[in-house]
Amino acid sequence: MAQGVEAMLKRDDWLKLARKLDWNYSYVKEGDVFPEIISGHPWLPHADWQDWEESFKNSYREYVENQHEKDLSVYAVRDAVGRLEDVEKLNPGWVNGLKIHAAGLALAEFTGSIGNLRGARFGRDSAWRTMAAFGALDEFRHTEIPLLLYHQLVRWDPQFDWAHLFYHTNNWFAIAARHFFDELTLGQNAIEFHIATNFILETGFTNLQFIGLASLAHQANDRIFEKMVTSIQTDEARHAQIGHPVLTMVMKHDPEYAQYLVDKWFWRNWRMFSIVTGVSMDYLTDLEQRPSSFKEFTEEWIIDQFLRTLDEFGLKKPWYWDLFLDELDVYHHMVYATAYTYRSTLWFNCVVPGPKERAWLRAKYPKYWDELDAVWERIALQWKTVGPGEDHEASVHSTAMPTFCDLCQLPLSAGTPSKNSASVLSYEGASYIFCSEPCKWIFLREPERYAGHRELVKRVLSGEAPGSMPELLTEYFHLNPATWGKDAFAGHYAWMNEG
Amino acid sequence: MPVPLYGFLEGDTIGLLILAEESETMDSLAERLQEAASLRVAPSSSVSVVYGESSLAPTMTVAQAGMKPLERFDVVRCAR
């Protein structure tokens, strides 16, 4: 036994062989083993990829041990503070923000697993493929954690139950989320997947989710959400490193294409995360529990780091950067005001910001707040006119068909209230509308990918989706009176009776 | 034949789908868009329809304006 133990190699002696195991193919062509359409552009022989290296190396044994410890920690927090009775004590606005995550997170992470598995097979170096295999396991874990933690809420609140149906419906936000994740992960080649997911989404935007929102969760006394996202983030930090060496190689051989991928995916990520996180932070989190605004979190966790990283790679700021900075002050506000007035199309309840909330929003977002405040003033006036109560929900709800971008599938709520930035395009005999110039630019860059998609208005006009709001809600979005969104307080706000 | 148009009301946070008739006047279009957006924007009697770069006469019809399906029109407040 002692002799056998002495014969074991040390980890540093065998790890290089274990993670770097490539060979020259003699029975098949390398291009057939790694076709460009799945491996990605630029196609280079393995000799060009052989020095691919990750900063933090892991063996499978280490992976299993580390992940096991993390899971035990999640279970411990769940047992201590993650029970139903703990969730019941949370602020209603915050709980409704959780429903956004309950709907969006699990299957999105699962698509990340599939994307990583593509990298695990079609990544161009064995070290890359090994890291992607661990990444796939990570994402599978990230699928399971929210499913585990929110399962107990399914019987407690029908909206949490519906949240698990989300991706399987044609709810307008599910259409947009599927559009995003389908292209990011499921229908993507290995190179673009790793740049879009690891370099852009996981190095920048998930910081917003998993660090920014974690600090809000702490303030909101939601320890289990805090634990869930911080535990997920520890995995992100490891597998996100795949993106850097992949991007380095693309930069070396096709810098224009590298810049395009960065510009495209920063914008597409911005669109999704500004809504999911912006709405959660600035509207659904109780005022006293907001340490910072969404804009402040974005400036700290995305902008500074992203610009430094671009510099390191020799990349330029995306061409729409000034527009993005301007949108920090307005986009998610436009979307939320719209969403409030169409809240029955959602699966979570919304709140009307009162005078204190509006004063805070004005202080944090002075540039366009006058225009947005006028909209909230009008909504509040309607509640005051009809009076609070569930029976009056429909009186404080819009019925006209809202409109959506032909690229991102999100509402045409970009620009400002005084100047909406939607623009129409005629392309090969068909008419398209885009919320913004970057969405139009992405479309024109890859029209073959997007031209056949149908956003919700086109589905209604073609007869694929019903045209009346009630039928749209029930038959197409699969919502019902128990699950569709309402005002979280049925219009009962103490401040409405004051002054 | 209805003409589906994207309507954008000054002050609103979203574009809305308006199914217009070819014989419908700009006055009517403006009134319907304001009604559709009234939960978010107070209606005004002093508005005009802008299509392309031009402000259209209130009595002009959708057909006369040459509005095509899935084009954009705006309803903006007139300067006093």
Structure description:
The complex is a heterodimer of chains A (499) and B (80). Chain A is mainly α. Chain A is built from 24 helices and two strands. In chain A, strand 1 and strand 2 form a beta hairpin. The mean pLDDT of chain A is 94. By secondary structure, chain B is an alpha+beta fold. Chain B has one domain: TmoB-like (Ubiquitin-like (UB roll), Roll), CATH 3.10.20.270. Chain B is built from two helices and five strands.
Produce a short descriptive summary.
The complex is a heterodimer of chains A (499) and B (80). Chain A has helices spanning 2-7, 11-19, 30-33, 36-39, 46-49, 60-81, 84-87, 92-122, 126-151, 158-163, 172-186, 190-219, 223-239, 243-253, 255-284, 294-313, 321-327, 331-341, 355-364, 369-386, 437-445, 447-450, 456-462, 469-476, and strands at residues 423-427, 430-434.
User: What number is the mean pLDDT of chain A?
Assistant: 94
Radius of gyration of chain A, CA atoms, in whole angstroms:
24 Å
**Most extensive interface, chain pair and sizes:** A-B, 35 and 23 residues
**Helix percentage range of chain B:** 10-25%
Largest sheet of chain B: 5 strands, mixed
So what's the CATH class of the domain at 57-328 in chain A?
Answer: Mainly Alpha
State which percent range the strand residues of chain B make up.
Answer: 25-35%
Strand order of the largest sheet of chain B: 2-1-5-3-4
Give the overall shape of chain A, derived from the CA principal axes: globular
CATH first level of chain B: Alpha Beta
Q: What is the β-strand count of chain B?
A: 5
Number of helices of chain B: 2
List the helices and strands and how they pair.
The complex is a heterodimer of chains A (499) and B (80).
Chain A: H1 2-7, H2 11-19, H3 30-33, H4 36-39, H5 46-49, H6 60-81, H7 84-87, H8 92-122, H9 126-151, H10 158-163, H11 172-186, H12 190-219, H13 223-239, H14 243-253, H15 255-284, H16 294-313, H17 321-327, H18 331-341, H19 355-364, H20 369-386, E1 423-427, E2 430-434, H21 437-445, H22 447-450, H23 456-462, H24 469-476
Antiparallel strand pairs in A: 1-2
Helix pairs in contact in A: 6-13, 8-9, 8-11, 8-12, 8-15, 9-13, 11-15, 12-13, 12-14, 12-15, 12-16, 14-15, 15-18, 18-20
Chain B: E1 3-9, E2 16-20, H1 26-36, E3 47-51, E4 54-56, H2 62-65, E5 72-77
Parallel strand pairs in B: 1-5
Antiparallel strand pairs in B: 1-2, 3-4, 3-5
